[in-house]
Automatic annotation (TrEMBL):
Family annotation (SMART domains): HTH_XRE
One annotated GO molecular function: DNA binding
Transmembrane segments: none
Alphabetized CDD domains for the sequence: HTH_XRE
HTH cro/C1-type domain mapped to chain residues: 19-62
Pfam hit, one: HTH_26
Domain of life where this protein originates: Bacteria
Gene3D superfamilies (alphabetical): lambda repressor-like DNA-binding domains
Endpoints of the signal sequence: none
UniProt name for this protein: Transcriptional regulator
InterPro entries: Cro/C1-type_HTH (IPR001387), Lambda_DNA-bd_dom_sf (IPR010982)
Length: 78
């Protein structure tokens, strides 16, 4: 997957535990764990906004894009 989730890095920088963030933004620890591991296909802007607001960061601090040959396949998004 060309999208890299670096939420765990930002949590460590801010010295915030996953449980604390999950409670603060109103999602389950399980869903936050899936997001941290990159095992989700998408994230709502409202969730991303809440994370950024709580951690005082920008979306680019949490997400990055890495070019992949997979991106060139017509069915890559399926």
């Amino acid at each position: 997957m060309p999208m890299i989730v670096q939420l765990d890095v930002m949590l460590a920088k801010r010295k915030v535990r996953s449980k604390q963030l999950a409670e603060a933004i109103g999602i389950t620890e399980s869903n936050l764990s899936l997001l941290k591991s990159g095992k989700v296909k998408g994230v709502r802007f409202s969730t991303l906004s809440a994370i950024c607001r709580y951690l005082d960061c920008q979306p680019g601090d949490i997400l990055s894009y890495e070019t992949s040959d997979e991106d060139l396949r017509p069915d890559a998004g399926d």
